[in-house]
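Predict fold of 2-dehydropantoate 2-reductase; 289 aa.
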Amino acid sequence: MHWHLLGAGNLGTLAAFYFGQAGFAVRLAGRSATRRRLTLPDGTVHDLQLAGDDNAPITHLVLATKAAQSLGALAPLRARLNADTTLIRLQNGLGSLDGLPAPSPHIIEAIANSGAWREALPGGGEHVHLAAQNPTLFGDGHSTPPDWFAPLARHWPQLHWRTDIHLQQWLKLSVNAIINPLTALHDCDNGALLTDTALHPRLHALAAEVDQVASQLLPDWPGDTAGRALALAHATAANTSSMRADVRAGRVTEIDFINGYLLREAARLGIALPGQARLIAEVGALAPR
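Predicted 3D structure, encoded as tokens:
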């Protein structure tokens, strides 16, 4: 068994490393070979030479592009995918594969909670720094993981199979819909959401909108999005959110698949979210969409 990788940024590089450690061959999809360097939190450094595309049928694919790039990046590969293809969607946000033409691959959702940043390597390629190794969750709604999961989990620290992956996605989306856009808008580290009390009324109002929608969609929704967002801001106080990093770099953000997804689900339920709509417009004015 070998895997193709679409998107060789922070998450893609991490996936390529751990799949390789588990003994799986990994090659890039739709591009030529490149190199990556990965520094783990313990300081160990690994140099990766990622093989280029072989143009063969794709049986197993890790999709690790930015959410907004998903359909466009997959389009040239459609003839190589089929209903038997396994696709791991390793991305922030939800809804990035809505509208994917049939036949749809078997999709396994993945939630990465590890923090990473990258810089250019002299002579080409990129150096990914994994700042913190946190749990990574895989799941497709079934209780039994596929055969390849066990060997992968032996090499990927804190990798877990979750039958409640949809709830876990919403738990992450809910705090990302608060922390990411507010830190991007105010150009601040996550910890500023704790220390700048002027931001608290807006944070709580946005969180209440999230809970209003999520409680309608998920019967076991725990609520208290504000409390969970503040707890995460405390735990990651010195971190820069991915959305803040994207705004600073002039890149397309993932707000349409975090707050935008929330807004689309609210509209389907007939719920107005004026705070979220305003936030999307404000962040959209700072970066391309």
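The domain at 2-163 is CATH 3.40.50.720 (Rossmann fold).
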